[in-house]
Design goal:
The structure is a single chain. The protein has 518 residues and is α/β, with parallel strands linked by helices. The protein has 19 helices and 21 strands. α10 (251-261) links the parallel β10 and β11 (266-272). α1 packs parallel to α2, α14 packs across α15 (377-388) and α14 (346-358) packs across α18.
């Protein structure tokens, strides 16, 4: 079993006591008492807090974290050791001491004596690096085991790139006894969730977004709800979205809701793969080199749609001809023997969103004048679909070479952004990230260019109604929001991932509920 532990901090006894019931109600499976957070930690307060926590009948971890490893307050080692002993004597089930401090003979002997008197309490020996990965995590793990075989090693480090997480995954896969291993920070967040699949003794969640006790802690409501904590086991298959950034994405909510609806043992996570081809290729190599992890597929977003195409073209098994023509991939399927197949569902998603909202079919796009702003992965799919339908497309882009290349590939026109003053179009499509949250006041096109006989399509869906669409609507133009494209391409992805027809009603409800809540 992997325990989902909630860290409880507070400046006094009442702070701690006020948070026990909410943690239990939210689904905590263990409580960590962060005793270093007390304004004045003393043995009397520790005894009262521990005794109060025991009434909730959850396993308890007591720690008085060293300031050098993320702790609060400037308490010396002797005092912190006394705090830990008091927690042991008061009935804590686990006590967490830094391995570097436990090597001090006096500290070690005091804790071992207390544990001998209270054999129900187990020792956790921890090491933290809040700046970077450990130089040799395997060696550190073996050092803890050799020094104190009965202890549970806890190794927690900061991931500077998503690829830093794989050292934690490997250690959990190869461990031969209880261990706690995961990465901190935004790049390491997925490792906290996957800890259960890989058999970590525990992982941590925050009581809420304001009470995280370490970087990257996920609120327990998200762990239990969005990420389906209670369903994760060793056989759970892994899907996710690859992008930079990915925090805004609704894909986890959509696909996890679909898995729940169809009773599929899978989880969908946000993998923040930073903006470089080497990082993307490295991530995919890590994935394919670990078939035991159960990675099965990925959505791909900005800026990796071309990286995904190149990877699949050189090291994959199959690239959908449409994706090759478009020159961008937004869906990767990992199949038998780690063979990768690549697809593009943006094309159909964009065309279906546009024609459905305008109440026309694709043939009625023929000879319509369309301005496409941007030349990235989404623009490639949009331009391909419009050109196929016979529209007269002009690509507008800030970078001349990229815009001209896209136009040449699809045999349409190119114009510089500064020539938007001369815009004459029936349909305008924003395929840039301009106006995406949090930069909601930005727009790629001035309000003066919109007219009542135009249509405006923004591929952005956060926010649901961008400034671009606000100003188009004010001029009387018909508007197509990015949520329509997103929903339709996500439904196509889900079918590729699972072989199941997705429940459109479920997906629409998830998307619009999430967007309206923002």
């Amino acid at each position: 079993m992997t325990y989902l532990a909630v860290s409880i901090c507070g400046q006094d006894i009442s702070d701690f006591e006020a948070r026990f019931q909410p943690a239990l109600t939210a689904g905590a499976e263990m409580l960590e008492l962060r005793l270093d957070c007390l304004a004045e930690p003393n043995t009397e307060a520790v005894t009262k807090i521990t005794s109060a926590a025991r009434r909730f009948q959850l396993p308890l971890i007591a720690t008085c974290r060293d300031g050098a490893q993320g702790g609060q307050g400037n308490w010396n080692l002797k005092h912190r050791t006394q705090i830990l002993v008091a927690a042991i004597e008061a009935g804590a089930d686990f006590v967490d001491c830094e391995f570097s401090n436990f090597t001090h003979p006096a500290t070690r002997q005091i804790l071992l004596d207390a544990l001998h008197r209270n054999p129900r309490c187990r020792l956790i020996l921890s090491a933290h690096d809040f700046d970077k990965p450990f130089d040799d995590i395997e060696l550190l793990y073996e050092s803890i085991i050799s020094f104190c075989p009965q202890a549970i090693p806890k190794l927690v480090y900061t991931a500077r790139h998503i690829n830093d997480c794989f050292a934690a995954f490997d250690l959990l896969h190869n461990k031969e006894q209880d261990a706690i291993v995961f990465s901190m920070g935004a790049m390491g967040q997925v490792s906290r969730i996957l800890a259960k699949k890989l058999g970590s003794f525990l992982t941590f969640a925050a009581l809420d977004e304001q009470q995280a006790s370490a970087p990257g802690q996920v609120p327990i409501a998200q762990m239990k709800g969005l990420y389906r904590w209670d369903t994760i086991n060793a056989e759970t298959e892994i899907f996710g979205i690859l992008g930079d950034p990915v925090g805004h994405s609704l894909s986890p909510a959509i696909h996890n809701a679909g898995f729940a609806k169809d009773a599929i043992n899978a989880i969908y996570l946000p993998f923040w793969v930073q903006n470089d081809k080497a990082g993307f290729d490295g991530f995919m190599e890590h994935v394919l080199g670990r078939p035991w992890m159960g990675f099965r597929g990925f959505s791909v977003t900005i800026p990796h749609k071309t990286d995904a195409l190149n990877f699949a073209g050189t090291k994959g098994d199959y690239v959908e001809p449409l994706a090759a023509t478009i020159g961008a991939v937004n869906t990767l399927k990992v199949g038998f023997n780690s063979l990768v197949s690549a697809f593009n569902t943006d094309y159909a998603g964009a065309m279906d969103a546009l024609t459905h909202t305008l109440g026309i079919d694709r043939h009625q796009l023929h000879r319509r004048k369309v301005a496409v702003i941007g030349a990235g992965g989404a623009a490639r799919a949009v331009v391909a679909g419009l050109v196929d339908a016979g529209a007269e497309v002009t690509v507008y882009n800030r970078t001349h070479a990229k815009g001209q290349t896209l136009a040449d590939e699809f045999r349409c026109r190119y114009a510089r952004l500064d020539s938007l003053d001369e815009l004459q179009a029936d349909i305008v499509v924003n395929c840039t990230s301009i106006g995406m949250s949090p930069h909601v006041d930005a727009t790629p096109l001035s309000a003066k260019f919109f007219t009542s006989d135009m249509a405006a399509f923004d591929t952005i869906y956060t926010p649901l109604k961008t400034r671009f669409l606000h100003e188009a609507a004010a001029a009387g133009a018909k508007c197509v929001n990015g949520a329509e494209m997103f929903i339709r391409q996500a439904m196509a992805q889900y079918r590729i991932f699972t072989g199941h027809k997705p429940d459109e009603k479920t997906i629409r409800k998830v998307v619009f509920d999430k967007l309206e809540a923002r």
